[in-house]
Amino acid sequence: MTIRESLEQREKDYLSPYASLSMESRGRMKPEVECDIRPAFQRDRDKILHCKAFRRLKDKTQVFLSPEGDHYRTRLTHTLEVSQNARTIAKALKLNEDLVEAIALGHDLGHTPFGHAGERALNRVCPLGFEHSQQSVRTVDRLERNGQGLNLTYEVRDGILNHQTIGKPHTLEGKVVRLSDKISYIHHDMDDAVRAGILKEGDVPLEIREVIGATPSERLDHFVHDIVTNSMGRNDIRMSEQIETAMKKMRQFMFENVYQNPIAKSEEGKAEVLIETLYQHFMKHVDDMPDEFLKLLAEGEPRDQVVCDYVGAMTDRFAISLYETIYIPKSWVL
Q1: C-alpha dist (Å) from residue 189 to 54, 85, 179, 299
Q2: Helix, strand, coil: what percent of the chain each, to 5?
Q3: Tens of pLDDT along 53-64?
Q4: Are residues 142 and 157 in contact, defined by beta-carbon separation less than 8 angstroms?
Q5: Measured in whole angstroms, how far is the alpha carbon of residue 180 from the centre of its chain?
Q6: Cα separation of 223 and 182, whole Å?
Q7: To 10 degrees, what angle do helices 115-125 and 268-284 make?
Q8: What percent of the chain stands above pLDDT 90?
Q9: CA torsion sign, 172 to 177 to 182 to 188?
Q10: Which SS3 state, helix, strand or coil, does residue 285 take?
Q11: Residues 153 and 28 sit within 8 Å (Cβ to Cβ)
Q12: Which one is predicted more confidently, 140 or 72?
């Protein structure tokens, strides 16, 4: 028996009857020789962790564009917090932690520079549309490894695709990540908003604070414990009605006071124009794109899609630098 097989047997003996087992995965898009050490979902986690798209997350906006300070979240730190919260829940419920972590680490790989501002811009100008969860799947299926993709398992790809509110993951592990994404950004975006001086804890309505706590850490603790308590022994991942209602109210409060705040979002209009301009430029000058994207064109991929792939994959810093190189005369640069 290989190490992988012994670990797979350990999953079967220990995990919840509702957990996803590595040995029962629905498999990969292309046949692949099994690792003799790592079960399938652990291997997927490693593939994601080592891919280029994951490394780029460190220079992609979460909420605040180019904030003054070192402690604001980026898309990478958001991803790590989602992973940590999801693993905490999965461990308590005896679900598959490897699967949860793989989904969590991969869920935002297709996110654009400048957060949702970049996503809106590409969705507006590209006839094919642009949606980051679908782009995350395209990233792992097609864009990584010079067009070969990571060849992940069905369960990881399903969780990545369905991590948003409207998604319906087919595994409990995917449902854990879906909820963990929400509770993570509610937690850390409020923390960042307080750090930025946009909000004070006292601004959160009393009816919310009385139910889920008066600080980001208290709220996160309430969310995690409530999910574990209400999902224990069930073939579902759920929250209590009271906590779920408070979470939705907190999320609405965040949209009204942070995500649509004119101070926090003052630079987003510029970011959208920048992304739209880069898209239009590369639609006209496709040969200016790197070889890996020209290869996709040569293989028959639509021009709109490949230009979206290139612009959407950029980091904030690279997009700004490229825009300056293309459009700002060098003599003007201070």
Answers
A1: 21, 15, 15, 41
A2: 65, 0, 35
A3: 999 999 999 887
A4: no
A5: 11
A6: 10
A7: 40
A8: 88
A9: positive
A10: coil
A11: yes
A12: 140
DSSP for 23-39 reads GG---BSS--PPPSSS-
- Torsion of the alpha carbons at 33, 34, 35 and 36, rounded to the nearest 10: -110
How many helices and strands (H and E) does the chain possess? Answer: 17, 0
pTM above the 0.90 mark? yes
Q: What is the tens place of the pLDDT at every residue in 257-267? A: 988 877 767 78
Both structure tokens of 32: 């692949």
Reply yes or no on whether the pLDDT at 333 is more than 80. no
The predicted-structure confidence for 20-33, as pLDDT tens digits, reads as follows 999 999 999 999 99
- Hey, how many other C-beta atoms are within 10 angstroms of the C-beta on 333? 8
Cα separation, 84 vs 97, whole angstroms: 10
Partners of 153 in beta bridges: 28
* DSSP string covering 132-146: HHHHHHHIIIIIHHH
Q: What is the pLDDT of residues 268-291, one digit of tens each?
A: 899 999 999 999 999 999 999 999
Q: What single-letter amino acid sits at 313?
A: A
The residue assigned the tokens 């989602």 is: 82
